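Handout, section 4.2: multi-component inputs.
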Amino acid sequence: MTARLPSEPKPAPAPGGDRRAGAIRVALAQIAPVLADRERNLPLHLAQIEAARRQEADLIVFPELSLTGYFVRDMVPDVALARSAPEIQRLLDAAGPAALVAGFVEESPQHRFYNAAFYAEEGRLLFVHRKVYLPTYGLFDEQRYFASGERLRAFDSPRFGRVGLMICEDLWHLSAAGIMQAEEIDLLIWIANSPARGVGGRTIATAETYDHLTRAFAQLLGVVVILVNRVGFEDGLCFWGGSRVVGPDGRLLAQAPMLDESLTLADVDLAELRRQRTITPLARDERLLLTLEELHRIKRGHYDS
Amino acid sequence: MTPDPAVESLRINPELVAEILCRFLRNELRRAGFRHAVLGLSGGIDSSVVAFLACRAFGPENVLGVTMPYKTSSDATRRDSQTVLDQLGCRTLNVPITDQIDAYFRQFPDASQMRLANKCARERMTVLYDQSAAFEALVLGTSNKSELLLGYGTQYGDLASAINPVGDLYKTQLYELAAWLGVPESIRRKAPTGDLWIGQTDEGELGFTYAEVDRLLVLMVDHRWRRSELVSHGFAPEFLDRVATLVRRNHYKRRMPVIAKLSQRTMDRDFRYARDWGT
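Output:
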């Protein structure tokens, strides 16, 4: 019997031995949220946070819309939270000294709803990213329900350096990756709700694409990429999981299982950033002003004529 | 030589497909609060594949396979469905439908073959739904993507189900999955038939083979090739127009009944919730 649906998340064994200096321990919380039921998803998060903290994680990452599930549709206004909501504070408190990333539906003071993710450190909310690129084609209909974010910005983490936090479709746009490179990030946290499509190959075709993209972004930007994708089903769609950490040389450092809920721990040596950037200093050689000039020229041609 | 894009696109990794479909079945059953599944077994490839998947997913003791022969059902149909049931060791039930069908048509002795076939399909549906209540089970659908696109099925008959694991697989792909699952060769080798009347075969009735039409459908539907591109690729214009018309004309079978809109929020138009809402 190959079809096993685990009811309990099974933490992978913590990486053995002491962490090397400069190494951080990342926990990939690959969960299957309950659709549009915050009350049940909150304890799911708390349990994962507790398990990750027991294994001394420095950074705990949940997938896109982890507090609500994906196809929220007309429930969007019912599950939305202000970023100051007590539920979010509870998660921050539970994470304690560990940094935390989770996905939620954010309601702005103007009552716009965003597909958003927060980053917290030491119990404080440091950054909220609102998904800019809302896929509305094929099986996706996000723009019907969400307002689009209007910023593509990185932020500074006192512990891990400069961080980019992107949500799923955001990084299917090279411009977003380019801006993250110009922001000179060290860590790219990419959270997703990617449904499986394409079953002709060795593995799910969508998973293969994410494999290419995570490796390419890690190498081209010279950063550590942390991808966390959810698992479980919604209305026949299978979210494939396969969360991972990729080093700046494009090497896969850790990978969560496909399809199963899991808490996967990975020790990431940030000193690798220096080594890789010495060997292949792509970001150093980036010509930001040239890029801007060319973009301005294209803008003049497209929009100003 | 460049590989044929249609053949490439129809290729599946059966192990991966079986893994996803078994998880899907378990997931949907659990969400609906059930532990059992029921399905009708015709002795054909579609229902055999679903029976094999269901037994892998739930264990044979939680699956009820129902055979519902009509008096004209062929011996091959009866024999093949029995082979599947014996091999899987799931729960079984035989409910002949001849009495109720014949009782009804005594009032309409001139009814066409098509009316009889549709009535049989709907009778089997009511048996399955009644047995689903008795067995505390969900009804599994067995319509494949080729049939759903061509409208080759009876609305509220064999097209009716609670969950359908094979509705996104073309017939060609089902054969590949069936082989991997271990569906008996006698079933995989025989001509597809709804056993709607004596000697009936799907391909005879449709006028083309599933192998032909699947190659067309996957390019037309999944890859959105234009008519001119399909013609250049070698599909006969009459064939592809006929298929395109079947797909369009039968779209109603794939949708809920149309509701006249009057209020602010109307079912399925602007009252939009996932079916898995809250689970």
